[in-house]
Predict the structure.
Amino acid sequence: MKIKVVILTTSFMFTTLTTAAAAPIYTFPVAGCTVTYGKYHHDYPATDIQAKKGCAFVSPVAGVIDEVALVDKWSGKTNKGADRGGLSVSIIGDDGNRYYGSHLSKIEAAIVPGYKVATGEKLGEIGSTGSARGTAPHLHFGISYPTEKGIWWVKRGVGLETKGKTSPWKYLQAWQTGKDLKPKVVTPATIPAEPKK
């Protein structure tokens, strides 16, 4: 009888330790809602994740909040690139990559630059701010290399992998099924010039 108890106790402890060590590194950036998204985005490599207004935008990885836009400054008259995202949040992940979500309807009060976030922590809620005004709610999601503040054309999403043209689609697919797949971000020798559009 004592042998069975020892075996069961040892087995339980091993299972508990194994489960605790298997926490995910990455998670899908929209939680608790049905979503749709495509492989491609217009003009540059990013992804628009369609979801209902108010769905949770969560941190896809543990990291530190980089930039937060709490005011929707976008105007159709000027259509400034820096303002197109509306309410937005960017995170520098513990993996060294930057993750960006925009067009939010709300940003959580604790989400400020320098704040340490956990994988899956709520950052804000899906909306239609910025240049998405008047469209169906969605999360514009981009992955890039870190830069100095204000380099919006990199922050919104850059091409991934060796040729620098891959969108986040395959990573989103993996995270949605519970697989930890680290994005391969290509960092150029020099930051590209600000685009005209």
In short: The domain at 36-176 is CATH 2.70.70.10 (Glucose Permease (Domain IIA)). The chain has three helices and ten strands. The CA atoms of residues 11 and 17 lie 10 Å apart.
